């Protein structure tokens, strides 16, 4: 059986997030008999949908970034994203309210964004153009040499193309905070260039400067809204997976592994296959599903990791419009250091929070009843925080007050639907370790081959994919992770 022909092989994929869906598609396309077992009632992992009283909310990711990765993914199967969903290029990309009363919109055209920078800093336009040029170079270098190429093992880095890139890489090992501060003087511009680090689960202080490539993603590649939201994207990939022959079973939770990864114990009986790909939360799977002798990493390892934030999410159905807000809106304190300190250094509920507001009904009139708005807020918070109804109620009211004060939007008398989702919900619905919303943060010591491996070192036919593995956090990265894991399975079967 060649690595391009798995017609005699069977694979069970645990978890229907983007990593699991991606692996399933690549393995089925190679001829394998693939079954996905998903714990919840929906596919997409954290890209779930909340439907209540005519409102439909994206519960997880809501930013469609890096369209080139989606095009490459669908192209692997002779398809295009447009075969399944349409994209709207948002303009503006997003709006920012600063808590000193200032506000700014970032337009979709990079040239117009440069004009915005010129308003805040002398030579700001020229500085941004130079910054984006370097960001684009770093993006192309990273994608071609480190993202699309599987370098999840140290030995994979002994390669001429990698060695040529090392001098540049060494320049980018400092923090994003230092890198940006050396190039821009205005604190608001610095924040605009660093807010995307939240998508990587990090802060300006602990994320390597090599991730300045996210500015190319933000300004040059653009921000889009997919038809049906990010859940629509997950549903589209699940549809393509079925077209490729994948069987999908929901409401099936895996409870144990035996026979070198070939047999899974589940709430629906036993499943047998030649290999298992795990897209469930990596730490949960090792600590709660595997037995001690089957674990690559023990409790001490997982306790010592730096985790991406959890999130305090409130989904609101609101009567009337919220015209002051754009599809994507950020509310930022003029000094956000304390908020990040409350996430990574001294965990606690931020008293002056930075947060995100999404009004997807600005772009999609099918997700709210006529005359109503679909609004949710996301506050990054530390994973593992104490979470109870009293805390939730108090913090929800704090955000409502903050939103009214800093954006001019007071919805308290117009709320018709309200659902809170936070730390304990992430832990119970997704089995996420400490209630993290994303997995492992992208710190210097948790990047590339220093992230957990795609292969189990203790269970012969057990493999991992998803945000804990290389290349990391985010929907596009999980799609690539799925490809890397599938290639590993194909090679080793």
TrEMBL record:
Domain spans labelled Amine oxidase: 19-489
GO biological process, alphabetically ordered: carotenoid biosynthetic process
Biochemical pathway: Carotenoid biosynthesis
Molecular functions per Gene Ontology: oxidoreductase activity
Swiss-Prot/TrEMBL keywords: Carotenoid biosynthesis, Oxidoreductase
Entry EC number(s): 1.-.-.-
InterPro entries given in the database record: Amino_oxidase (IPR002937), Carotenoid/retinoid_OxRdtase (IPR014105), FAD/NAD-bd_sf (IPR036188)
Domain of life: Archaea
Gene3D superfamilies: FAD/NAD(P)-binding domain (3.50.50.60)
Stated name of the protein: Phytoene desaturase family protein
């Amino acid at each position: 059986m060649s690595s391009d022909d798995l017609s005699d092989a069977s694979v069970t994929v645990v978890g229907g997030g983007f990593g699991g869906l991606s692996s399933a598609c690549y393995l089925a396309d190679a001829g394998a008999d693939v079954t996905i077992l998903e714990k919840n009632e929906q596919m997409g992992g954290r890209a779930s949908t909340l439907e209540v009283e005519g409102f439909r909310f994206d519960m997880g990711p809501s930013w469609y970034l890096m369209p080139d990765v989606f095009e490459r993914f669908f192209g692997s199967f002779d398809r295009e994203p447009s075969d399944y969903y349409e994209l709207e290029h948002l303009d503006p990309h997003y709006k920012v309210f600063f808590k000193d009363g200032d506000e700014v919109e970032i337009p979709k055209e990079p040239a117009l964004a440069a004009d915005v920078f010129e308003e805040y800093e002398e030579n700001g336009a020229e500085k941004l153009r130079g910054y984006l040029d370097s960001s684009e170079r770093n993006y192309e270098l990273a994608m071609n040499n480190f993202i699309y190429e599987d370098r999840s093992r140290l030995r994979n880095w002994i390669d001429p193309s990698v060695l040529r890139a090392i001098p540049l890489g060494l320049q980018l090992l400092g923090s994003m905070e230092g890198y940006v501060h050396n190039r821009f003087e205005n604190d608001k511009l610095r924040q605009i260039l660093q807010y995307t680090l939240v998508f990587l689960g990090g802060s300006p202080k602990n994320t390597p400067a090599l991730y300045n490539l996210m500015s190319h993603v933000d300004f040059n590649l653009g921000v889009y809204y997919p038809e049906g939201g990010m859940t629509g994207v997950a549903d589209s990939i699940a549809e393509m997976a079925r077209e490729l022959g994948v069987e999908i079973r929901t409401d099936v939770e895996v409870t144990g592994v035996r026979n070198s990864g070939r047999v899974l114990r589940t709430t629906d009986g036993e499943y047998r296959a030649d290999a298992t790909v795990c897209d469930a939360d990596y730490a949960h799977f090792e600590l709660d599903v595997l037995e001690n002798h089957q674990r690559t990493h023990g409790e001490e390892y997982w306790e010592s990791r730096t985790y991406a934030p959890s999130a305090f999410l409130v989904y609101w159905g609101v009567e009337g419009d919220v015209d002051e807000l754009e599809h994507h809106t950020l509310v930022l304190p003029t000094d956000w250091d304390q908020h990040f300190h409350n996430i990574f250094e001294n965990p606690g509920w931020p008293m002056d929070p930075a947060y995100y507001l999404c009004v997807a009904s600005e772009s999609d009139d099918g997700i709210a009843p006529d005359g109503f708005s679909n609004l949710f807020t996301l506050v990054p918070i530390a994973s593992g925080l104490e979470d109870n109804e009293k805390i939730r109620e108090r913090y929800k009211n704090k955000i409502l007050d903050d939103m009214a004060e800093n954006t001019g939007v007071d919805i308290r008398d117009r709320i018709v639907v309200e659902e809170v989702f936070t730390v304990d919900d992430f832990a119970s619905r997704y089995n996420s370790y400490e209630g993290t919303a994303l997995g492992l943060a992208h710190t210097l010591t948790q990047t590339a081959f220093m992230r957990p491996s795609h292969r189990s070192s203790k269970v012969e036919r057990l493999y991992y994919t998803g945000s804990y593995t290389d290349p990391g956090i985010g929907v596009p990265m999980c799609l690539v992770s799925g490809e890397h894991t599938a290639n590993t399975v194909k090679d080793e079967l």
